[in-house]
Every structure is written in C-alpha cells, then in structure tokens.
Amino acid sequence: MLTNTLDGPVPEHLVGEAWPAVQPGADPVLLGHAKLEPSDPVAVRTAQTFTLTYTVGRYGLDDTGAIRVAFRAMTDFGRLQVDDPAAPGYVSARTDGNARIVLDYAGFGVTSRPRWRALTARVRGGYLSEGDTITIVFGDTSGGSPGMKMQTFVEGAFQFKVLADVCASGHFTPIVDTPSVAIVPGPPAVWRAVLSSLRRPGEPFRFGLKAEDAWGNPTPLAEGDFAFETTLPVIGLPDSYRYERGNRSVVFDGLTVDRPGLLRITVRDEADRAVVAESHPMVVRDGAYGGYWGDLHGQSGESIGVTTAEQYFDFARNKAVLDVTSHQANDFQVNNAFWAHINHLTARHDEPGTFVTFPGYEWSGNTAVGGDRNVFFREEGRQIRRSSHALLVDRSDLDTDAPDARLLFEALEDEDCFVYAHVGGRYADTAFAHDPRVEKAMEIHSAWGTFEWLLTDGFALGHRCGVVCNSDGHKGRPGASYPGASMFGAYGGLTCFLAEELTRDGIIDSVRRRHTYGTTGTRMHMDVQVAFAGGGTLFDRDPNVYPDTEARPVDSVMMGDIVQTADREAALSLHVICQTPIERIEVRNGTSVVRTLRPYAASDLGDRLRVLWSGAEYRGRGRDSAWSGEALFSDAKIRRIEKINVWNHERRLEAVGDDTVVFEAITTGNYGGFDVWLDGGGGRAEIETNRGALAAALSEIGLEDTVLEAGGLARRVRIFRLPEALSVREMQETVTIPLSDSGDNPLWIGVYTEDGFQAWSSPVFVFR
C-alpha cells in the first residue's frame, strides 16, 4: 500500500521561456522587489483578495514606464477587470509616489508563452523614485466585488510573475523574486475506486482509492472506515481499510487473483454499508495479453502546464493509478537542462511489471509543416529533434532541429521509437507527412476534444494506424485530467495497451501492432475479433511498407491486425464490459456505421429523452463551438434531469419551471447534454439554440436519433428516447460485415456509455 504527496515550485532553470536580451543593467536587484500578502494557501475556486506591493529599485520607474504582473496561460481563474468595482475580479492600484497608475488587463497577446495573461500598471503624470511603492489589490472588495476567483486546479506555487519596464523602453524584465501562493484542494465531493481491465491469473495489479473535490483534484480532506467487497478473492487486499485524513490517495500494490472471472471492487462505508465507490471492471483470464492503461501525453510547469515534472510522474503513478505514462513538453520550450531532467525522471520511475515510463517530447511544428506529433523513445539519452527554438535562448544546437514533419521522420528513421499524431493547439496534417514505419497511432481524443477525423482521414490515404487517447493535459494530472473552467472542453482520454508484458518492450510491441483501444477517460474491457469462414493471411507488419514481412494463415484476428482474405464478408465479434451501463455500440466499416447495437429494444423505451449537442467549428486552434438555448417540452412536466459531460459546473444547465431546460455549453468535437424524465407525452419537444432549431412531437421521438445538422465540423443536435433506467454493463455480439473489393475495410467499433463516455477499438484492416 502506497501513499504520496508532493508540492513545490517549478525550478526556474528548467522553464523554457525567453525574456528581452537587453536589460538596463547587470544587477537585476536594481529593478525593484515585490511582496504578496496574504501568502497562506487558498482553496481552489474560492474568492480571494491579494495585495501585491512593488517597491521601486535604484533605477526608478520613469514616466510611461510600467510593471506587469503575468500569469500562466493555462490558469482558469476568473477574468480580472479594472472597470467595475462591484463586479468579480476587480483590480485596483495606487502609488505613494508623485504619479498616478493606469491599469490594463489582457487575457492574451501582451506577454509571451507560457504567461499569456497579464495586468499592466503604467506610470502616468510623473515618475517614481527608489523606495516608492505601487500597491495592486487583486480582488479588491472595497467597492462590492466578491474578489478574485481562483483557478479550479491545484498548484503548489501559483505565481504573480512581476516584470518591470523601468526605462519606458517597452522591454519588460523579470524582477528577482516571484511572489506566489499555494492553491490547495477543496472538500471531498466524490470517491473514486480505480482498477485496470485485464490480467491473467496470478499477474500483479494495483487498486487505487481517492477522494476528489468538485473540480477533480485529489483532496487530503477526506477520511473514513471502509470495507472492500470483491466479486473474486483478491490476494493482498485487506477486508477493510482506515483512510486517514491527509492522504490524497492510497494505492494497494502487488495484488493478484488466482482464478479466471470478472473482478469488481465495491467500497462500502463500514458503519452503514452504503456504497462509496465501485471500481472499473477487470477481466481475469488466461491468454497472451494483459490490458495496461496509460496516458502518454501531458505537460507540467517547465513548459506551458503547471506543477513540476516530478509531481507529474507522482500523479500518474499514485493518483491516477496508471500503468504507463510519458511526459510531452512542447519542444520549442524544452531547454537542454529540462531534456536531461526528463530523461533522468523516466529512468528513475520506470519499474517493469508495475509502472512503465517513456522518455519523449511533443514535436510542435505548425500545421503548415505537419502539425503536432508525440515522440516516444525506448531508451533515455536520445537526441531531441525540435521543430524550432522559438523560446530557447541557447542556440548552440540549432543544427539538430527538424523544422518540418518530413524532416522529423527522416531524423527518426534509425531511432528505436514510435510516434503519435494528435490535435492540440495545432493539428497534425497526415496528408502532408506520415511515415508508417514510426507513426503508428492517431490520438482521437484528448482534453482538447474528440477527433475521429484524424484517424478516418487516413483511411482514404491508405494509412493503417491504431487508436490512442490521452489527456494532453496541462494541469499536472495525467490519467485524471479534468477540463476545469478554461479553454479545454473535455475530460482527458486513456489508452489500453493489450501487451504480453508490462515493460517498455511490451508496450512498444502493442503500439506497433495497433493492439490498442482508447476511451474518453473511463476504463473498460474491450475485446474485438474478426473471423473469416474461408480463412485469411495475417501480416506481421504492414505489407504496403514491408513487402517481405512475415505472414501466416489464420481463421480470426484481433483489433489492429492487418489481414488479407478472399471472403466477401467477415464476422466481427465484440465483448465489452463497462463500469456503467452501455447506451449503444456502433459497428463500423471505415466511416460507415454497419450496425448499431443497443442492450434494449423499442418496446423497452420509457419517458426518458436524451438531448445532445456535439461538434466543432473547424479543425484548427479556435475549434470551440459555443452552445446556448433552451429545450421546451410542451404539455409535459419535467420530473428529473441529469447532466451529461457537463464538466464546467459554472456553465448553466438547469430546469426552469416545469417544462423547460436552459443551457450553455462548449464542445470541441466531443458531446454534452442532458437526460430528462417527463410526465405526459402528448406535446412537442422544441429545442432552440444559437445554431438552429429542432422540433418534433414527443410521440414521434423513439429509438433512432432525430437530428439537427448545424454546420461546422460534425456539429449537430440530437434527441432520442431511452428506457427509464439502463442496467446492462456487458455486451457480446457478432455482426456480419460485407467487405469491399476496393482498398482497406477498416473494421472497428465505437462504444457509448450511459454517463457520456466513449471508446474506440483500433481497426482491423481487411483487404481482399
């Protein structure tokens, strides 16, 4: 059993950020100093007031000179403003010198990455001398403002980075000290029980228990006496456990089950036997593969995220209870000291059989030259090939750069590595560049949204890639990455690696064979097999790339395999076991849905309607689609409403009166919405949104989706009917799929659960 907590600031020498090359003098102390009060820790999403006092240094502060207080780009604190003393986020300033102070706040554009947000306090009508002060009150409540709303995520040192332009030259230089305050978790809101999904009898696994606050932060403010109820005997797991206040998680290591079956662990309050949490399902069976969960894509505060890289790895292992992880900082922010540090951390944390780490980085070229890629090395000590040195002062290794994706693949030709394409601020253009020898997977979901098109675009191009999902998280929470209240609109994803062993070699082999499936953040068991009545030929590697690859006759294959057959149809068998009930499963051939499977029939439908909105503006950086509107259910009464994928608690989604739901939301390719239970069904559903309107008689809304197409990128509104309650968490089906003679038949499935999660298998690539 393992517990762990780590806090602390990010070491400055590891942070990739650049300041003006010219400064007023050699001694930065002469620029002045700052103090922040109070400095005691504050809880996430609370309203606070801070007083920052800047004392002018020996240079003075000239007329039209200024100081600037910069904040990290990924903070999601409430917006600051300088105009309305009664409104949230009001900031005021004064000076005891012979001048006045003019304030301006900008959320983007006045400072460079990773500190996009900045308040500028400019001297007007005079100048300031050494010893004069500027006092800035963040969250000034004197005029009625409730204060400054803190961010939704934990940070050991939330910095008020002070920069000074003492000579009114337009060059802002950091002062020596950086005031900061710790942001800590709030009270517990929910318990999580974390388990993997596939092990063999006798193979070790881990079980985690934690309490999260309302914004998904593991909190030390929880305690309790719990009993563990298991569906199979678990060797090494106690019958009960005292969870002490002060822990942010507990992890039970080295557990085993010695016989096949399905394991679920229910956590009950020992006093009243109430269910506190139930784990994900884990299948225990003999076979070639175990299922190992990973989030290989995220960042920390040394680049554009928060917390330290050390804390990042601790969270992955001990808070998210991952089996596999990697750290992926934007390459143009990775200085050589940090690259060495990351390699040191992955080597130290790699523990075969328990927790596997990969050294790597994000190649962050613009979309015009290929777009974002993730690079993972088998071993430490390899050369980083950056897309640019955009934020790096040290230019001595410019000759090692790979400034477009084709040059990246050329540079990686002899490396023992693998690459993912992904969609972040930039999106990967796999038509511009794709090397199937190293680029093995497409990341189709992250905290940035859902991007099935990144995979399906490749079908027409002949690409044969696997499915992966990751967080691309910037909040130091790999494996449990909540979007909070910022630009991120989705919960971070996870990948299950079907591998022979939990080692670097095992995971790499899984990726290269495309034996992976991804989810939007839940863990489930997924098994997909494709059988051929007349048999087929299974290729060890892609024969389009390796014509001399080994091949052997087979009757069936698993997800990710490449197979040739003379048959005109194939039988896809699926076995899915989820933590929560299944809403539907789509069986697909390429971009076409061959069949939709539901664990219920039209005769099972009740007075429950599901309303969903989804999609994005376009493929680029500003893809967020904002939704607002209302749903009116005439001649009916709302009995109950449940939210779906509403991660930002501050966005409105609520019933108004007896018959109306009002909402505002953001989607980035993913979906959100609500379920509503109605009394009375003789009226109409009328959904009015900023993207268009959808109306239908309640009596006509049934099993199949009623859809409003709303432009953009797969942007739409859907409404359909569900049973009063869903209960089926396991489905096994076989579907016969006709095969095309032309090109590949990518056979895969998409799973949708009642609580809004999705999952995708890697395709089986069948050709005739």
Tell me what the structure shows:
- The structure is a single chain.
- The protein is mainly beta and 768 residues long.
- The chain has five domains: 12-184, ntegrin, alpha v. Chain A, domain 3 (Immunoglobulin-like); 190-287, Immunoglobulin-like (Sandwich); 291-523, Alpha-Beta Barrel (TIM Barrel), CATH 3.20.20; 524-599 and 731-768, Immunoglobulin-like (Sandwich); 601-722, Immunoglobulin-like (Sandwich), CATH 2.60.40.
- It is built from five helices and 55 strands.
- The strands form eleven sheets. The protein has a 15-stranded mixed β-sheet that branches.
- Mean pLDDT is 96; it is low at 1-6.
CATH architecture of the largest domain: Alpha-Beta Barrel
**Largest sheet at a glance?**
15 strands, mixed
- Helix percent band: under 10%
Number of strands: 55
What CATH calls the topology of the largest domain is TIM Barrel
Form type = globular
Overall mean pLDDT: 96
Task: Please work out how many helical segments DSSP would assign.
Answer: 5
Which keywords apply here?
15-stranded mixed beta sheet, TIM Barrel, Immunoglobulin-like, six-stranded mixed beta sheet, disordered N terminus, about 40% strand, 5 domains, mainly beta, about 775 residues
Can you give me a brief rundown of this structure?
The protein has 768 residues and is mainly beta.
Topology:
Elements: E1 33-37, E2 42-43, E3 47-48, E4 50-55, E5 66-71, E6 91-95, E7 100-106, E8 117-124, E9 133-138, E10 148-149, E11 155-159, E12 161-165, E13 173-174, E14 180-184, E15 190-194, E16 198-199, E17 205-212, E18 224-230, E19 240-243, E20 250-255, E21 261-263, E22 265-269, E23 275-278, E24 282-284, E25 290-295, H1 309-319, E26 324-326, H2 336-349, E27 356-358, E28 360-363, E29 373-377, H3 405-411, E30 417-421, E31 439-446, E32 449-450, H4 452-461, E33 466-469, E34 494-499, H5 504-512, E35 516-519, E36 525-539, E37 551-558, E38 562-565, E39 569-577, E40 582-589, E41 592-597, E42 608-616, E43 625-633, E44 637-644, E45 653-656, E46 660-667, E47 671-679, E48 684-689, E49 692-697, E50 706-709, E51 713-722, E52 730-738, E53 745-753, E54 758-761, E55 764-767
Parallel strand pairs: 2-14, 16-24, 25-26, 26-27, 30-31, 31-33, 38-55
Antiparallel strand pairs: 1-4, 3-10, 4-9, 5-8, 5-12, 6-9, 7-8, 11-14, 12-13, 15-17, 17-20, 18-19, 18-22, 21-24, 22-23, 25-34, 28-29, 29-30, 31-32, 34-35, 35-54, 36-37, 36-38, 36-39, 39-52, 40-41, 40-53, 42-47, 42-51, 43-46, 43-48, 44-47, 45-46, 48-49, 50-51, 53-54, 53-55
